[in-house]
Amino acid sequence: MEKEKTLKIITIVLGAVAALLIGALAYIWITKNNIVKDLNVEKAELTSQMMDLRNEYDSLTVHSNQLTDSLAVEKEKVDQLIERFQKTEATNRAQIKKYEKELGTLRSIMKHYIVQIDSLNSLNMSLKQEASEARRAAAESKRKYDDLVSTTEQYAATVEKGSVVKGRGITLLAINNSNKETDRSSRVAKLRTDITLVENTIAKKGYKRVYIRVKGPDGILIAEGEQTTFSCAGEEMIASASREVDYQGEEVEISIWLSSSQGFTKGVYTVDVYTTETKLGSADLLLR
């Protein structure tokens, strides 16, 4: 009887111990599963951070060959880290912590590159702006230079045109042997062309030759002695007669005489007066 009682007590104790063991094992199993689940979640989050870092490297745009090569090296490091991390069990806390620290280092490097790239972009923008301003300044300078050249050329053309000596009061007269004017062809000894060179302070000073071309009623040029040729505005012409005058920018009156061995007939005579620069004018004479 005593033995049965003792056996019963032992059985009860063993049962209680077994229940406690089962409860302890269940608690440990549940706790372990929760820990593993948490570690897997942590590993997934860390993997996501690594992928985000990799995408950030891909999104960087640089225009420096040196930086491009450096970024390629860092991206390769991130790829290798992701590959090693994915092969590591979530329960390997020591290794996970090591990879997490390595990720932090790569992230810091990434921030350093971002700062460099921002600095380079800012510098590039500044240089582009300076280049744009320089181009605008150069274009403005060229415009001003072209305007100046155009103005100078116009001024030079105006001065050149204004420096040409002009004439006025051109007359063609018939003179007899008594040195008096006449309109009778039979009494004419010579023809006289009178012209006044007008004042021009910017004209070139010095000796200037004035040429006349006289045509008779038949339209034929009357020439005295040997033919004298001259050039006016690029055109070569024969002169009937000419005279050189010392022109000093002040008004001066001159007369040019022309005789003819053929005599003079009735009709209209025409004189055209020139310098080598320009035609000064014309005049007519009617002889009876």
Description:
With 288 residues, this protein is an alpha+beta fold. Helices cover 52% and strands 24% of the residues. Strands 3, 4, 7, 9 and 10 form a 5-stranded antiparallel beta sheet that branches. Strands 1-2-8 form a 3-stranded antiparallel beta sheet, with no helix packed on it. A two-stranded antiparallel ribbon has the order 5-6.
Lay out the secondary structure.
Layout: H1 2-59, H2 65-86, H3 93-162, E1 167-175, E2 190-197, E3 206-215, E4 221-222, E5 228-232, E6 235-239, E7 241-247, E8 252-258, E9 267-274, E10 279-287
Antiparallel strand pairs: 1-2, 2-8, 3-4, 3-7, 3-9, 5-6, 9-10
Helix pairs in contact: 1-2, 1-3, 2-3
Q: What order do the helices and strands follow? A: HHHEEEEEEEEEE
Average pLDDT confidence is: 79
Oligomeric organization of the protein chains:
single chain
Largest sheet: 5 strands, antiparallel
Structural class: alpha+beta
What is Rg?
A: 58 Å
Global geometry: rod-shaped
The fraction of residues assigned to DSSP E strands is 15-25%
Helix content: 40-55%
Quick summary:
By secondary structure, the protein is an alpha+beta fold. The protein is about 50% helix and about 25% strand. The longest helix has about 70 residues, at about 95-160.
Can you give keywords for this protein?
single chain, 288 residues, alpha+beta, three-stranded antiparallel sheet, 3 helices, rod-shaped
